[in-house]
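Researcher: We're teaching a course module on how sequence relates to structure. For the next exercise, students receive a sequence and then see the predicted structure as tokens, so they can try to spot secondary structure elements on their own. Here is the exercise chain.
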Amino acid sequence: MSMTLLHLIPTDPRFSPAPAASEAAQARLRQLIPGAWGGYDVWNIPGTAFIDPGEYWCGVRCPVCGADIEEWWDDAMRTTALPDGYFGSLAVTVPCCSARTDLNALAYAEAAGFARYSLVTTDPGCELPLPPAVVGELENLLGTELRQVVARY
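Model: And here is the predicted structure for the students to work with:
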């Protein structure tokens, strides 16, 4: 049986909120999405991790010229990852146009990103992605902009 995860991750991959802000955001998330069949969680990740869309993966493009860079991305992810599977520097030079960028800024066809922190709802039972006003409330509580990553496994 498959499941859907909604990750709300900071756009800054190294951001971790204060514990009180995280608790307030989690409590508000429970109010905003009261019917999550699989529950709610907070991931405080010990390193910068890639948060992927699972079965929703549809590729990745260069954010500068729009070229398909999925084959290069596979290699870049392997060579950039640290031995523990987390990531240090996300800086890369894309092969298509030699632009300097970072792995978090690439144009993922379905939202994905890097994070040390994630508000997670499993099987939220609502339409996804969440409306901007809902995400804005959580951003205000956490003090950072958020990216929604909808994943299916």
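Model: If you want an answer key for the exercise: The chain has a mean pLDDT of 97. The first helix runs from residue 19 to 32.
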